[in-house]
Amino acid sequence: MGKISSKATSALKTTRIPFWGFLFHVTVLDGRARFGGANIRVLYAGTKPFLHYFKELVFCEPPKEERVGSYKIYEMPRVCEELGCDIEIFRSHQSLANMGLFPSAYFIPEWIAGTANLKKQLDCESTSKSRRRDRALLTRNDISYSVTRKLSDLDDFYDKMYLPHIEQKHGGSVFLMTREQMHSRVKNDDARLVMVHRRNEPVGGSLIIQEKGLPRLYSQGVLNNDKDLMRLGVGTAIYLYSFDYLINAGYSRVNMGWSRTFLTDGSLYFKQRFGLKIGETSPIGHYLKHTSGSKAANEFMAQTGFMQHRRGSSSAVLFGACDSERDQHLVARKTRQCESMGVDRVVAVDLKQAKPSSEYSGFQEKAG
Fold first, then answer.
1. So what's the pLDDT on residue 8?
2. Whole-prediction pTM value?
């Protein structure tokens, strides 16, 4: 991640930097890469939920895991070099990046927030061909909705829809809302459950809560996480019917909740279809460094990319080899994805030079 001088290390040990004095459990993951299928070796130092997330993000099958000890942040450069990993990842605070530490690593926030303009969503009903197709699909499959505050309905949603859906979707990286939290929100008149029905039977839902004066789509679920129900349009219905309820209730904007910041994240991609505009990112995240000579690492970087939001401005960082026609197409496609979410600035990094490049066809920095 870049060498830190012994003098700087001694000085930094005595300063108040988040995570600086913590001991991190370091794990090495080794297996077949999700992108390209080559073998890839990853060092990870962070939390168990995000260890699981990175295993699914990087590998196409469960990798071998080896715990190699516990180390502090300022020891990471040495540990990473000794273990010879293709990709090195550790969890910390963005303030390290603000201070110029680990300059060769990218800071990737854990979460990114987003909102949707409900007036624009209403306009889509008459102007968007894809929205008309969505509505036709729901009508054809007899999918409707109701709004409820009954605790019995909430329990059915929690047990049969929310838990199966969220656990299958996120596995070991899941952050669950508890049943008690749901009950408390509804009892305090601070939440509504939009229940989706197929042929009058409940098959999905969305819990909408109030947060800082704005409705937030907080918890979603599909009955038994049934993929056939998703193909019938239940996932689409969860968002469209939530919008319908909120528009009828007089709201003009909705908080779409948090998503992971990698552009390959399924939740982020799905929300993009429904007008997601990104906002703030979490101050906690992961520092990631790839070894430029590793084909597997380069392929991972080219296929992913990530977003961040700092000092009131959003940006996306994409990767590729500027002399690769395939990478140029990848970067161009991801640029369009970012622009649709209102990203202020897009930066391309040439993997062969490991620095921002404007040599991509149709891909230059976009000033917001």
1. 46
2. 0.82
